[in-house]
């Protein structure tokens, strides 16, 4: 089947059809099973407790929705043809549920990343005084509103309705897959920003890497960067180099994967692309951007560094904010936990 473009007025949907029949009865179940395992695995291996945030709640909601979709398609797959509440379910509904999920995930990136960015920008400086319970309720409400709004928009778009109705004439062995133009544009923007930042701070990043030493600190492997920064360099630009090292030190494989996918023009279905590991990757990028934009307002409190479960950002700031009476052994020393 040839590729087919499926878009609304904003160009949010891009539907592609497999060049050969897709065995949905097995492939979709296996893909969703692998994704659910990866989602819950990432939620469980977090090396440290995480402070309440919008992205944290949204990651949990994605894992729960994926698990619900998996249970639904597994139930249909096992019983094949049955009636429930007056509706007859067949193998066709496996593709239908997966496609609705994919189309829904396809329009999630912009609202989710925008809300998460605003959340970090307003809370990274620890100026927000919301009680913990009130903040949790606010995040739960925001996640619920986004999901309900996105599902409603997905089902109301004429192009989506027509695409779903086509399943009546499509063989059960074939299933249209949907990618997200929003995710593609976000990936392009991230690669462009990271590339620009690396080019701008290439010399200092190289100097820091050459001065790196692997040590052990509190039974954890750490990297120590001992170098003397240029005193004429703005502290904000010095911070950018350290943020880049911390971010790429953890998420370099994801950045490389992004570049490869963009260069090869690979279209990943939205229901596969929107997953918990990817959201944690975006989470770290948004946090780094918030720290850089509001670096002068960041407070050195332990609670403030617990938003990201995989990157220790506090070591980017400690040399800049070290006002103790005992000077550091070497100027500009930075310790980053691996």
From TrEMBL:
<feature type="transmembrane region" description="Helical">
    <location>
        <begin position="24"/>
        <end position="43"/>
    </location>
</feature>
<feature type="transmembrane region" description="Helical">
    <location>
        <begin position="181"/>
        <end position="200"/>
    </location>
</feature>
<keyword id="KW-0472">Membrane</keyword>
<dbReference type="GO" id="GO:0043235">
    <property type="term" value="C:receptor complex"/>
</dbReference>
<keyword id="KW-1133">Transmembrane helix</keyword>
<keyword id="KW-0812">Transmembrane</keyword>
<feature type="domain" description="G-protein coupled receptors family 1 profile">
    <location>
        <begin position="34"/>
        <end position="291"/>
    </location>
</feature>
<feature type="transmembrane region" description="Helical">
    <location>
        <begin position="137"/>
        <end position="161"/>
    </location>
</feature>
<feature type="transmembrane region" description="Helical">
    <location>
        <begin position="91"/>
        <end position="116"/>
    </location>
</feature>
<feature type="transmembrane region" description="Helical">
    <location>
        <begin position="276"/>
        <end position="292"/>
    </location>
</feature>
<dbReference type="InterPro" id="IPR017452">
    <property type="entry name" value="GPCR_Rhodpsn_7TM"/>
</dbReference>
<dbReference type="InterPro" id="IPR042353">
    <property type="entry name" value="GPR160"/>
</dbReference>
<dbReference type="GO" id="GO:0005886">
    <property type="term" value="C:plasma membrane"/>
</dbReference>
<feature type="transmembrane region" description="Helical">
    <location>
        <begin position="55"/>
        <end position="79"/>
    </location>
</feature>
<protein>
    <submittedName>
        <fullName>G protein-coupled receptor 160</fullName>
    </submittedName>
</protein>
<feature type="transmembrane region" description="Helical">
    <location>
        <begin position="240"/>
        <end position="264"/>
    </location>
</feature>
